[in-house]
Amino acid sequence: xxxxxxxxxxxxxxxxxxxxxxxxxxxxxxxxxxxxxxxxxxxxxxxxxxxxxxxxxxxxxxxxxxxxxxxxxxxxxxxxxxxxxxxxxxxxxxxxxxxxxxxxxxxxxxxxxxxxxxxxxxxxxxxxxxxxxxxxxxxxxxxxxxxxxxxxxxxxxxxxxxxxxxxxxxxxxxxxxxxxxxxxxxxxxxxxxxxxxxxxxxxxxxxxxxxxxxxxxxxxxxxxxxxxxxxxxxxxxxxxxxxxxxxxxxxxxxxxxxxxxxxxxxxxxxxxxxxxxxxxxxxxxxxxxxxxxxxxxxxxxxxxxxxxxxxxxxxxxxxxxxxxxxxxxxxxxxxxxxxxxxxxxxxxxxxxxxxxxxxxxxxxxxxxxxxxxxxxx
Length: 377
Hints:
By secondary structure, the chain is an alpha+beta fold.
């Protein structure tokens, strides 16, 4: 390695099938798409935050275009489809006969001689009404001209689209997207042409929105299950206090390890919703049983915390120890398992510690017979 040369090797972003930055240019006219995509590509090449800027709108191949005269076709009793099929048959040929033997299969293809296709004038003289008294050449009902056909036509959301991709040369994805927005503000797209920023940033936003919806739905379903189990609408809210308490540990772990909120962390949070409430459920069940036995609120909370401390510690620590090897980041697929395991470990430890303090305090504040408790104590 040469002196002063510094390089880093990073894994590609997970759950992302798109390049880091993509500008989607949509419209109906292919020529306008090609021209504006070239302008966008030239503009992005001037940004220092980007590298490997490339337009996927490739140049087309030369072709011979046949433009039909509808009035002339109507006068001769022909249709554009009928004439097009005859031209295709003469150029590509038909296979009216097929021979099959024990060793091979032979196909007989009938088409116009290549000598009649070596110039535009000869193509224009092709007869399009075989079997008629007066032969009618193609030039009588159509105009032939040389042009350039598209290499491909890409559609996104049922609209023709040209893509301009770019990679990051430094900095974060958000800063690069903001730089692109500022750079493209000065470009005036042709009429009917629109553009938007796509790529991994847009894909990540969609994924996080889906995970947020799944997280809200998970909390709601957990609440319904606990409400039916405890036959109360207040106690489930107290138990759900353990969910944001677990989030405190997740935020601290991400800050300590330099990680960020991504899809894998969101999956860990989704799993954490169903696990973090277990300690609060065990504590609540014991508290309700002691209250039914006649203990006051404060004594029931202290007794429940004392009785359930060891089971809560054992269940939490066994789960954490079971997840600990996944955080070491060894083996194939470690980059997928490590963020999920780290999220669960940090959330469970924080939830275990804070649940033993916050949940009893919440029950004490929400106790309906607090006066009776004070009188007895």
